[in-house]
Amino acid sequence: MTPVEALERVVHCLDRAHTGGFKTKAFVRALDVVRETPPEEIVERAESGTLTELDGIGDATARVINEALAGGTPGYLTKLEAETQVPITDDGARYRAALRGDCHLHSRWSDGGATIEAMARTAIALGHEYMVLTDHSPRLTVAHGLSRERLEQQLADVAVLNERLAPFRILTGIEVDILEDGLLDHGDDVLARLDIVVASVHSKLRMDGAQMTERMVRAVADPNVDILGHCTGRMIGKRPESSFDPDYVFAACAQFHTAVEINCRPERLDPPRRLLELAVDYGCYFSIDTDAHATGQLEWQPHGCDRAAECAVPLERVINAWSIDDLLQWAAAA
Ligand SMILES: [Zn+2]
Ligand SMILES: [Zn+2]
Predict the structure, then answer these.
(1) How many A from CA of 39 to the centre of ligand 2?
(2) 204 C-alpha to ligand 1 centroid (Å)
């Protein structure tokens, strides 16, 4: 294990545990420093005990680098590997075992922390057959949303990566903003070219309930939209659910074959149980997605799988438990 590999894995484990904060930042910073420093210099400094003279390397990160260079798995990493496993219930495990991909995740192209390739390699290691790359659309400027031009570049990059990573497939996609009037933040011509489109509300979350219902139904009914992302917009303990009439929204999801996302982010877990049960009653399709912004977060599907089990989501209605061919056929027809 090289120092870079060891530090990458430490960051991955901290991310999957949703640690955040100072500790994660310290390791991300150290990883950047080691990547930017010639490997011979890292070896020299390890031998002379001067790693911590590099700006961004502290005692804890230096120890990981030293132990990786010594040829073993750093002790801190071994401890993290054990402590940061994402738990899952027996009932949830039945769903997780059936999942073949992840339909909502971000890369460095928007506000994610990892390259497309790093996300893909992690997805492969998790046993996925495919992932849908869904970086943000232009309206979300804080998240470096993708203009038409940047999306074109991304599609070219994905085509190259797909040749290298086959038989794994990176499906093309986007998390498109649902604008205030329910229109989408990219034209039909752009969206129609993508394999899967996730549509989400990110602005004016507090708008009047009747208006929000219309806004969401309009987006859900758009033939290019395949998945309704994190429908209530809540952040547990921080931001309440948006108001909308879930009967209208889920009836529209069922009618227009737009899957209701079961968002696995621990701070979202969206929709909440009562709404998830309602969506089940309406006969909706579902997608159990991580909305990962880092490689470690791709391991969050158990959170959504436990939810799906608790709310008796029919497994045959979970679109990312399907093969690529079935998924694409459904998306094209929907
Ligand atoms: Zn989102
Ligand atoms: Zn997202």
Answers:
(1) 35
(2) 13
Put simply, whether the predicted model's pTM sits higher than 0.85 gets the answer yes
Residue 333: the pLDDT is: 87
124 C-alpha to ligand 1 centroid (Å)? 23
Ligand 1 midpoint to CA 221 (Å): 19
Is 334's pLDDT higher than 70? no
pLDDT at 21 over 70: yes
Closest ligand to C-alpha of residue 111 is 2
Residue from 168, 88, 174 nearest 128 by CA: 168
CB 98, CB 318: distance < 8 Å: yes
C-alpha 125 to ligand 1 mean position (Å): 25
Confidence of residue 19 (pLDDT cuts 50, 70, 90): confident
The 10 Å Cβ neighbour count of residue 326 is: 12
Calpha distance 170→122 (Å, rounded):
12
